[in-house]
Amino acid sequence: MVYKKKRTIITSPGLTELPPLAPDAAGLIYDYRRYFTYTLGQNKYCHSVKYFYKALALTVRDRLMERWKKTRYTYIESQCKRGYYLSLEFLMGRTLGNAMLNLGITDAATQAMHELGINLEDLAEAEIDAGLGNGGLGRLAACFLDSCATLQLPVMGYGIRYEYGMFRQRIVNGRQIEEPDHWLRDGNPWEQERPEYTQRVRFGGRSEKFHAENGELRVRWVDSRDVLAVPYDIPIPGYRNGTVNTLRLWKAAATDAFDLGEFNAGDYAESVATKNEAENITMVLYPNDASENGKVLRLRQQYFLASASLQDVVDRWVMVRKGDFTDFAAQNCFQLNDTHPSCAVPELMRILMDDQGMSWDTAWGITCRTMAYTNHTLLPEALEKWPLPLFGQLLPRILEIILEINARFIAEVSSHWPGDIDRMRRMSIIEEGDVPQIRMAYLAIVGSFSVNGVAALHSQLLIQGLFRDFYELWPQKFNNKTNGVTPRRWIARCNPGLSRLVNEKIGEGWISDLQQISRIAALADDREFRQQWHDVKQANKAQLSALVHAKCKVDFNPEGLFDVQVKRIHEYKRQLLNILHVIHLYDRIKRGDTAGWTDRCVLIGGKAAPGYAMAKLIITLINNVAGVVNADPAVGDKLKVAFLPNYSVTAMEVICPGTDLSEQLSTAGKEASGTGNMKFMMNGAITIGTLDGANIEIREEVGEDNFFMFGLTSEEVDALRGNYDPNAVIACDTDLQGVMNLLRCGHFNLFEPGLFDPIINAICSPHDPWMVAADFRSFVDAQQRVAVAYQDRERWIRMSILNTACSGKFSTDRTITDYNNDIWHLKPMEIGSVEL
Ligand code: 26Q
Questions:
Q1: Ranges of residues in the chain whose predicted pLDDT is under 50
Q2: Which residues line ligand 1 (CB under 6 A)?
Q3: Which residues contact 21 (CB under 8 A, 6 or more apart)?
Q4: Is 81 a catalytic residue?
Q5: CA distance between the termini of the chain
Q6: pTM higher than 0.90, yes or no?
Q7: Residue 573 catalytic?
Q8: Residue pair 512/151 in contact by the 8 Å Cβ criterion
Q9: Are 386 and 402 in contact (CB under 8 A)?
Q10: Alpha helix (H) ranges present in 35-135?
Q11: pLDDT reported for residue 430
């Protein structure tokens, strides 16, 4: 039956609150020495920087702890409405620097370490990124948590504590090699295990009907193979406001009963294997940023997260409200980060009916008033589907509930559009076919009161395309929430030079109210300010050069234009278009066509999904082009190209402050939003981009004069499909011919003939979905406008200032305020207003 640990409560009058810990340098030094000496057992002979880092991490963590407890009690005592962000990914990066920034103890810690003869930055470098995400979707979740805490909203993150995060990328012979990311090897000072909140998650078995004591017909899930979910909590501090929220990550563990049964049968090896099967669930993050369908382990992860998190919330509710669910929907809201956690819909139904004894109608009334779904992709092939038979084997009770949800939903469709069989077939949660499939996006839409896209264009395209039928049925469910990024990490922390300069001019208010940064626009014509702005950028470019030198052995001259594209490698993001432009510049240099030349340093970085052959080949092409260009003495400083291996959150913290030009090249209508574009803008880079995702809104904010637009619009892309003729495009463009000739004659693969044929064929195919050749001319022309603009130094600096000044909209503080006003309706909670 339902697994519940007995709790023994000890109350001790001796355990009253201690006075708060000193936040100054002397207090930090005292605690640091204690941790270093007694907890970590080190002395003056210690030569591992890991211990120096760990002692400071523990010292800082202590200062979060008081606030964390207070925040928890404030939420429980006030019985306020709570929000939950359910995500298979949280790409947190490093924690130490962010924690110190938000606590306001960076200066004190710098001084403390200085007095101990330690350089704080060296020590911070020892922290390994928490890379529990693939890219945009996972990083967005991390930025959201920072903003929720800063806005003092009672929101908890729920995710998975993967033993292995995003793989580490190495480049060998121009090719991507994946290495495991065992990020927990040296322990994680930021997590706190909470075994007392362990949950039990069922898999397999079957469901059976039975009569309850009161004679009601009920359902139970029996003969299941259960797995324990053990929570690990991570503190999420707000910006200098006393709030510390929680990110709860679940780790899978085998049940004791499991082992016991096998042991009794006398098979030790079998019992250990069974244990592994359970613990495998949270072993590794799937490294695909578009769905890789049909992997049963991935579905186990998804259900594991949904089930453990919902049971956790319901347990807390039952404890406080004593089983009265009248207010549950008014007091709880779950935001689903894409369809990955969408098993939450049938799982909440199961908990409310099977565990809490509710009727279908009551349970459904609660479920579809508490769930909200965010979509992050327009690519139809990336929409999640699960084969029904596989789903039924793994989660029989959940499938039963999904089928019932669908039956009732189809009845609603049929009463809305009587006789419209085709529409019923189109809208069904179950896609018909040889093997029927469960359409997770449809399940999420049917079970949610809110469905949102992540940029204005994306939300518009969703209701016109993928979700059109659903929009016609329920227009009021659909809304837009344009993405953002947190200005704490993405300006204040990663760009101290810029922050100091801005603080001097307009104060520090912008850090928690980014609209205030618009006040620097008034200084865009101030010569002295422009010089200071330029000095900051040049210093940041020097740091980026050092990184490129260290990781790529390529020398970037900071006088050149730093032209950067970093993001997942995907055909729709068109790194290929970027490298075609590079080849074109190389071709011009070789032809001597260099009058009025602007020196350029091109940096490209990002990971390819390990099974995505075309993306991996594009990486190799970039590396081979870089090899040829950088080695050619005729090229010199005119053009440098580098592929940065192992792109990560921490790498971006050095990259975006040192970038002049931000490349946002996706085929229009394909990139849902993009968020890297916002980080670059905030740090004074100018965008060259298509009218796609949030680029459109960036251009609206900064003005068309301060943005380099190019390419087909999404309507033009759609209109061209079917009569696209890339070979005709190439025939009309001598520049593109020059590029194709270099590719075709094997200039970048002299020792591997034919290596890049798949790329050449893709560009020349009339079925190329990404229409690379179609946008080449427009892109090259826009790049020429960039080159000219960069030579007018004063003009460029002015554009740079205006980009930062107009980035206020792209703070996640604005995004989260929108989510809260339109979807969650949570009350900000002052911390400390409740007696402990
Ligand atoms: C699904 C099933 C099985 C295996 C993997 C997946 C999977 C994992 C990650 C599918 C998709 C993702 C990630 C998607 C993603 O990062 N999307 C990006 O989300 C950003 C935040 O909204 C947007 O800015 C980007 O435009 C969008 O591409």
A1: 1-3, 833-836
A2: 134-137, 140, 286, 288-292, 298, 340, 376-377, 384, 454, 483, 671-675, 693
A3: 27, 31, 62, 63, 66
A4: no
A5: 36
A6: yes
A7: yes
A8: no
A9: no
A10: 49-78, 96-103, 106-115, 120-124
A11: 98
